[in-house]
Amino acid sequence: MIRKFLADPQAWAQEAILRAQSERRRIHGIDVWLINDRQFATSDELFAKIAASLQLVADHAPWRLKAMRRDFARIFMHRQDGVRAMFDLMRNCSLDTYFVATFAAEQVASSIVHEAVHARLRNGRTIPRDLIAWEERLCRKAELAFGLRIPDGTAVVERARAALALSDHDVAPLAGDIQLRQRRPRGNGGLA
Question: Fewest Cβ atoms closer than 10 Å to its Cβ: which of 7, 66, 74, 149?
């Protein structure tokens, strides 16, 4: 970890800024950071939703929670227009505060499971462009399996099945396509 920051001072600076600005809690053995503009929910409400979501994972897919503890540096909630969730180069499972505040715990948990598959596959590696759709389908299959295990997983199952029916281009849009989607108005639900 230290080598990474010495090799990339910008990453070190970003980490320091995030640490200074965020509220932090440890939930189910995972550090959860939050930068909350309080537009959609209080910090307590957002942390409670993450706790409920991780409890679903603990109850219905405990092996996934164990892997998340290793593969995520943290879960980081902040406003990110047009994207529900993403796994980033800092090993954060980043979640949009609007998404966490307004969607059911089952859906939030499903997105965390999805990003955990990215984390497990990436593990410091870059996935070749020709395998991105394959990777995204694995994430959606994990969502589907999780949705079938949980009570009230209907929305999760429907969304995963719909995504799995898409073409490679549509199941895994290129980064430029995602940037365009981020410009959509707030409250649109986003990706992942």
Answer: 7
How many C-beta neighbours within 10 Å does residue 41 have? 18
- Burial group, residue 77, by CB count within 10 angstroms (0-12, 13-18, 19+): buried
Dihedral sign, CA of 138, 143, 147, 149? positive
Q: Copy the structure tokens of residue 26.
A: 């440890």
- For residue 8, what pLDDT band results from cuts at 50, 70 and 90? low
Number of structural domains the chain divides into? 1
Is 33 inside any structural domain? yes
Q: At what angle are helices 154-164 and 132-149 packed, to 10 degrees?
A: 160
Domain assignment of residue 153, yes or no: yes
Question: Is 11 part of a structural domain of the chain?
Answer: no
Query: In this structure, is residue 147 part of a structural domain?
Result: yes
Going from the C-alpha of 123 to that of each of 81, 130, 176, 191, the distances in angstroms are 26, 18, 23, 22
Tokens of 93: 């499972």
Q: Report the pLDDT value the prediction gives residue 12, as an integer from 0 to 100.
A: 67
